[in-house]
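If your schedule permits, I should be very grateful for your opinion on a structural question. Please examine both parts with care and let me know of anything in them that strikes you as inconsistent. The record follows directly beneath this note:
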Amino acid sequence: MILTDQITKWIMEKLDLKKDLKYLYTPAAKKIELVDVPPMNFLMLDGAIEPDQAPGTSPLFAGNMQALYAAAYTLKFSLKLRQENPLDYPVMALEGLWWIEDGTFDLQKPGNWKYTVMIMQPDQVTPVAFADALVQLRKKKGDQPVFSRLRLARYHEGLSVQAMHIGPYATEPQTIAKMQSFMETHGCKDLVGLDGKHHEIYLGDPRRADPARLKTILRHPIKRI
């Protein structure tokens, strides 16, 4: 048994997603960049912020994030512990796509926002592996209604402008203004508010980190003018 475990460990495929995708998940601070984001797999969960609420106060948003993380870790360990072709990879950062269906998108007025919270998955995560992980998740946590809304989907963001925002979420408009200035200088049009979505990648935990040191990647899809 010990020998079998050693062989399994030896042949286990290990992915360093954070290193391979460094340009997308650890950009330089205070630098605006133009990136072409390839199609990638994501665990996803859709929702909407309730009127007079914000992401930090919405109980539905908190519940969705708990379900998403539970699915991500269940999927990770189910692939790591499988007997054939075991795979080890890090659980990636939480991401959020934000938009509205009517009116003007305003970061200071979240009460009408729609969202998709998501966690990137390696290409080796298949629909079959996802379905198996959901079975395990329901056995562990019970058949919660939110689990039926989890999905594995391909998302292609394409040409985008991104920046590392350091500080509280309330000061994001300052970084976005710099991103939009960069777009104008480089002949690009911001698609957020049209058919694009405001994209945030959360590299810090707001419950524990000093708000002044929070790191959030901001990304907006664009098109060339």
User: Anything to note?
Assistant: The chain has a mean pLDDT of 90. The CA atoms of residues 167 and 210 lie 8 Å apart. The chain has two domains: 16-38+156-225, 43-94+106-112+124-155.
